[in-house]
Amino acid sequence: MSKEGYYDDNGNYIGGFYDEDGNYVEGYYDEYGSYALAYYDEKGNYLGGGYYNERGEYVEYAYEIEESVQSAEPVKAAAPVKEIIDDSEGEYNIDDDDDLTYENLDAFAFSGSSGYSSSKSGSGKNKTSKELDNSMINRRSSASRSGRVDASSSSRSEKSGSTGKRRKKKLTVGKVILRAVIALLVFVLITVGGLYFTILTIVKGPSEAAKNLFVSTIQETGQMKFVNKLFFSEDEIVAITGQNSMGTLDEELDTGLITIGGGSSEDGSDAGDSSFDINGFELIELTGRTYYAKMMIINDPSRVKLSTIYNGSWPEYGQCLDEFVENGNYLAGVNGGEYQSDSNKGGHPKGIVVCDGEIQYNNPQAGDVLIGFNTDNILIIRDVGNLSAAEAKSLVEELQIRDCVTFKDIADGDDNHFAKLIINGESIPLSGSGSGANPRTVIGQKADGTVLILVTDGRGASGHLGATAADLVSIMQEYGAVNAANMDGGSSSSMYYDGNYEMTSVTLYYANSSWRLPLAFVVERRD
After folding, report:
1. What is the dihedral of CA 395, 399, 400, 405, to 10 degrees?
2. Is the pTM of this model over 0.85?
3. Four-residue CA torsion sign, 515, 368, 333, 221
């Protein structure tokens, strides 16, 4: 049997064919650009375009058209009639229970009595398809319509040729949330699993140096020590950290080795070095194999002061570093001593805090080292961990401390921290790298009184692990420090200068600022 088609008024190619009774059957494009099939039923009635519903059934509607379209009466089609309801979003919902009504009718076909059908014995191009398209068909389901229907079929639920595509079901909010949760859980499992096997490769792999550095680094953190315990016993951790350890510096600091301004004149007067710029300030960059750092060089040590949030008591929440600097109209600032960092509240210090000669906190603990300046602007580094609060108060008065904090110098396997780096020009003895690699904040002083304040990155920031004790000693010695001490580091390490963060916290959530702090060393602004 021959097949042919034609172009409609819009230039669309309409496929057509002759059925087994010699009737020419064709389709047309509806207003949505979907191709709808038209055909003759077994009674010779010409039926307009139908569609395949989501169950794969071919659905259509039949009308008996009187002289006036407005008086049209519905008649039953050969196939089961399904109701199509147009909802507020222009979608079509099929209702199996209700009868078809005019108000919700969207698609229909016509019976022979309307005058829109052709003779069953006719041949050639059927002229009524255009009329069906232009005058009677208003809207169709957006599902694709294609294929041909066998004219001899008595059931409209059967399809001939290719079937139309089924309408996709809408996703509910619950399904979207469930899929998002599942995707998140899968991501977390993959990430955690990958991290676990990476760590396992390091700690159980062939490199002893990598294992020792990793364990030492983790043991210096505040919240991550449990990672080491996943792989090693307490005795093993102590043995491993001993591979990167430090000796002791028991000698008391000699303040006579520091002369503010660079020395004295030949007649013994305190004239100092005429080439020394007391107002000098410099900010420099430093790089190492495992760290990036910035260091402030402040010629006048009297410009370095302590700023705290103490107002007769310590509030629950501290301040970010920029607040200390900006609120006091200072030039720069860095984090200082140890504090309670749980949940990043940052409102309470530890050890001893002296600000402008006032003791604001006095509770020395084992391993505490006092780090600060006396009234002569000389950096003091002194063990206070074995003192009572009363003894600490007496020592602060004896040494005439104007500003100080404390940090731990202790290595017991469970709590590894260090403070003293250089005392009276002598560096602390080191085994291996001396420590793990972490972000650090260090303060030192040269013989002419110049203060060196160093902050390094680490813990993956810019791909860097951080600085070890050996790195810190090397930097301080290179820049002439006579005395130097390591202060609180890790996520607390940060530096703010002239309106910008030069070094931010390595914690992801605070990567553009610092943690909340109860105190900070700040640098006075000068014209």
Report:
1. -70
2. no
3. negative
